[in-house]
């Protein structure tokens, strides 16, 4: 059974790297690491990086990185994907070394078109812990994508990658954890008309981080597009806001955790507004409106022509 350690990083394409670096550092509260692997790197825990910012003409997702539980799990996943006829690409050792990762490989997931990188390990700073500034960020929480191939995508992540479903809102979104990571979801899939990035989440340590953020964002003219509110599936309190390119980010506080052995059964919630938010916060139409998945259109065309 394939085992993961955690969601490690999210790489984003942004139109102005300097502007976005300042935003993620000064407004969101990540620590700037510096340039590595052609990107500006930032972090919110002991890892070398949790966010990578690449320059590009269209904002969106470049790739998602998951850290494996061990070298054995890394090799097992690589062999499994090859055996299923999927095209996996080993990352040259020199390239992985530039971003302080161990052995790594990439896969273009066929139903979202997103590039996923699975890696053996990442350097930890050790004596240089992440120091919170404007928000006490606990960790990179999760990332959610949307795809019209929703059912097939859910099946791929559960049947092939061994992600475990925690809950779903029927026909709308599925929340998954990368086994045996305990948190309710490190990855989510939404049912959408087009492929795209929905949002990237940062878990904060205190509910006061959400309250302070509301006034900090108002002062900095950062659009708040949903919240504050509370998600019924995970129990998390949330606040969604936009980065300088209009991509959606989320602060959340609190989340259900699952034991590795004998976890509760996943629930299927009704596809109604109350299943998304106990509090009924209004949603700005700009939420999740921006976020192209790099290479997704080419992947869709390739699947259509197959």
Short synopsis of the structure:
This protein has 306 residues and is of the alpha/beta class. 22% of the residues lie in helices and 36% in strands.
Describe the protein's topology.
Blueprint: E1 4-14, H1 17-28, E2 31-36, E3 39-43, E4 51-55, E5 60-68, H2 71-83, E6 88-90, H3 93-98, E7 104-108, E8 115-119, E9 137-147, H4 150-160, E10 163-169, E11 173-178, E12 187-191, E13 196-204, H5 207-220, E14 224-230, E15 237-242, E16 248-253, E17 267-269, E18 292-293, H6 296-305
Parallel strand pairs: 1-4, 5-8, 5-18, 9-12, 10-17, 13-16
Antiparallel strand pairs: 1-5, 2-3, 3-4, 6-7, 7-8, 9-13, 10-11, 11-12, 14-15, 15-16
- Uncertain stretches: 301-306
CATH architecture of the largest domain: Roll
CATH class of the largest domain: Alpha Beta
Radius of gyration: 18 Å
Q: Which H/E pattern describes the elements? A: EHEEEEHEHEEEHEEEEHEEEEEH
Structural domain tally: 2
Terminal CA distance: 31 Å
Shape: globular
Average of per-residue pLDDT values: 95
Oligomeric state of the chains in view: single chain
Model description:
By secondary structure, the protein is an alpha/beta fold. 22% of the residues lie in helices and 36% in strands. It contains 6 helices and 18 strands. Strand 15 (237-242) and strand 16 (248-253) form a beta hairpin. The radius of gyration is 18 Å and the shape is globular.
